[in-house]
Every structure is written in C-alpha cells, then in structure tokens.
Write a structure and sequence with these properties.
75 residues, alpha+beta, two-stranded parallel sheet, 2 helices, 4 strands
Length: 75
C-alpha cells in the first residue's frame, strides 16, 4: 500500500518565521522510509508554495488552491 503524507503549509509547515530547519531532515527520513510527501494548501501553485512542493517531492502529487488545482510532475 502506498504511503503518502499530505502537509498543509500555513500554520503547519510554514510558521511565522518560515519553515523550521529541523523539518527538512524529518521529512527526508520519511522519504527514505518509502513515504511520499505532498503539499495540500489553499495557496496557489506558485511562489513559496511551489518551491516547497518541489523540495518535498519534485515528481509528486500536490494540491493547491483548496483542491481546485492538482499538480503532478512539477518539473
């Protein structure tokens, strides 16, 4: 069974000061364990939201604009 973690951005992954540094190694460990990490946000699929999605999983499935836009293979 595929393992996928959908992560919200505002107030979850992205805080007042951006993304906390310790988040990236934790998410990398999940990927190494076979998990796919996906963004699920109300933000549009551009700017910092797209940058984070690419960093999490450049070939992954990501949901933007409150589900109105689903993007796959961002690069």
């Amino acid at each position: 069974m595929p393992k996928i973690l959908f992560v919200d951005l505002d107030g979850t992954l992205v805080g007042r000061d951006g993304v906390v540094d310790r988040v990236w190694p934790a998410l990398a460990a999940l990927r190494e364990a076979g998990w796919r990490i996906a963004v699920c946000t109300g933000r549009p699929g551009r700017g910092i939201a797209l940058d984070i999605a690419r960093r999490l999983d450049a070939d992954g499935l990501h949901v933007f604009e409150s589900g109105a836009v689903v993007m796959l293979s961002l690069i």
